[in-house]
């Protein structure tokens, strides 16, 4: 009789342990699936805000807004989102609008190591322009 009670207690303890493990796994999954989504910040001078213009040259509607949202989540200041003058850009690129290309390199690294082109214009509001091309699937937006 003592052995059967001991067996019942061990079985009950095993069930409680199993229930706790399953509960912890469910909570972990729920937090991962529905919790806040943050990316690791890009290394660099975070005391300075980088102003970014997003131009959609891919011909796909809504991709400019998705890129702008990803940039905002990364701590960049998006000054403008609009369609590019053309919609047949093949390659996505980051354009440095100032002599200093470091801000453009930060944006390029954040979006997935995109090519950086220097085309300095001091009159522009944005320091960096992202031109989205038809290769938009290579962007790191999530």
Automatic annotation (TrEMBL):
Residue ranges of domain LytR/CpsA/Psr regulator C-terminal in the record: 50-135
Family annotation (Pfam families): LytR_C
UniProt-listed InterPro entries: LytR/CpsA/Psr_C
Q: Which domain of life is it from?
A: Bacteria
The protein's name is LytR C-terminal domain-containing protein
């Amino acid at each position: 009789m003592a052995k059967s009670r001991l067996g019942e207690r061990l079985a009950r303890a095993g069930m409680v342990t199993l229930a706790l493990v399953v509960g912890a796994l469910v909570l972990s999954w729920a937090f991962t699936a529905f919790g806040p989504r943050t990316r690791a910040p890009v290394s660099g001078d975070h005391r300075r805000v980088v102003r970014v213009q997003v131009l959609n040259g891919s011909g796909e509607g809504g991709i400019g807004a998705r890129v702008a949202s990803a940039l905002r989540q990364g701590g960049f200041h998006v000054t403008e989102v609009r369609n590019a003058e053309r919609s047949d850009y093949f390659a996505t690129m980051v354009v440095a609008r100032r002599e200093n290309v470091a801000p453009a390199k930060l944006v390029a690294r954040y979006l997935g190591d995109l090519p950086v082109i220097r085309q300095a214009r001091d009159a522009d509001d944005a320091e960096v322009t992202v031109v989205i091309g038809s290769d938009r699937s290579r962007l790191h937006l999530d």
